[in-house]
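Section 5: illustrative case.
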């Protein structure tokens, strides 16, 4: 039985006038009860449903065809793996560190589609490259790579590793590369001319032409903030402690001293402002983490 239905008093039923009064009174009581129930549900579910606020993705990304850029990224990624394999630097499937990365990815990938519907079509890959470089990336289309240096030199926990992976996945999901390419190429009017004279298909040549630059593409401060917050939520939804985002960047900051700092920091600079922003957003995703863990 519904407890709302039980709240009606049978003693008030009878004449049309009393029925009308009863209906009016019940309507008010029912509205109150529903409002109270809704408020209670919101209070209980609020933390678990909280999301970071990053706004819509850049409209500029629409100037570069996603399919073309993803194809270019896939080709560049395949070349990178082939080069690493030829040098004996590509981790084999039984490698414990690679298995660890793929376990983390398996928990994060299912959380991606709310940020980009195209992610359903992506053929996600995760590979580990033997190198002292402190670096990791995710190319358009879901091509992820970690270097052994970032795992070993920073002594990353699974939670911290998930924060890096989530951050890099967020760059791909929010299509920052598409937007950056549009901005850089657009300054020379190449994109607008291509769109006018040849149609969007011609713009694919632009995307393919910069495929080799995807590994060194520098994102804006806004892009980095975007990726920090979306990555934080992805990792929390996957069951990884959001507090690790703070400890990760504290480690990055300590490792960044001197001219020989991590290559990762050349494109992902650390600093107090970054850590403070992450700290401010941890409570927003804490409920997601707790729900995932339960």
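Designed sequence:
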């Amino acid at each position: 039985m519904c407890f709302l239905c039980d709240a009606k008093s049978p003693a008030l039923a009878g004449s049309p006038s009393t029925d009308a009064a009863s209906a009016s009174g019940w309507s008010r009581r029912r509205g109150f009860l529903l409002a109270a129930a809704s408020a209670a549900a919101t209070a209980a579910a609020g933390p678990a449903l909280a999301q970071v606020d990053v706004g819509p993705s850049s409209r500029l990304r629409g100037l570069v065809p996603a399919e073309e850029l993803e194809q270019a990224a896939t080709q560049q990624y395949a070349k990178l793996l082939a080069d690493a394999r030829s040098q004996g630097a590509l981790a084999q499937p039984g490698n414990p560190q690679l298995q660890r990365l793929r376990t983390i990815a398996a928990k994060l990938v299912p959380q991606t589609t709310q940020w980009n519907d195209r992610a359903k079509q992506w053929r996600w890959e995760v590979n580990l490259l033997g190198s002292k470089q402190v670096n990791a990336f995710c190319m358009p289309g879901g091509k992820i790579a970690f270097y052994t240096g970032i795992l070993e030199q920073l002594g990353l926990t699974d939670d911290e590793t998930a924060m890096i992976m989530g951050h890099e996945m967020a760059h791909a999901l929010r299509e920052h590369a598409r937007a950056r390419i549009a901005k850089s190429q657009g300054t020379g009017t190449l994109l607008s001319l291509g769109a006018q004279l040849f149609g969007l298909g011609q713009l694919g040549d632009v995307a393919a032409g910069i495929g080799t630059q995807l590994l060194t593409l520098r994102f804006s401060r806004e892009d980095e903030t975007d990726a920090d917050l979306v990555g934080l939520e992805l990792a929390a939804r996957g069951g990884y402690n959001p507090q690790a985002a703070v400890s990760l960047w504290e480690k990055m900051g300590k490792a960044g001293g001197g001219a020989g700092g991590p290559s990762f920091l050349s494109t992902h600079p650390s600093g107090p402002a970054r850590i403070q922003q992450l700290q401010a957003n941890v409570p927003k995703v804490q409920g997601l983490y707790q729900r995932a863990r339960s």
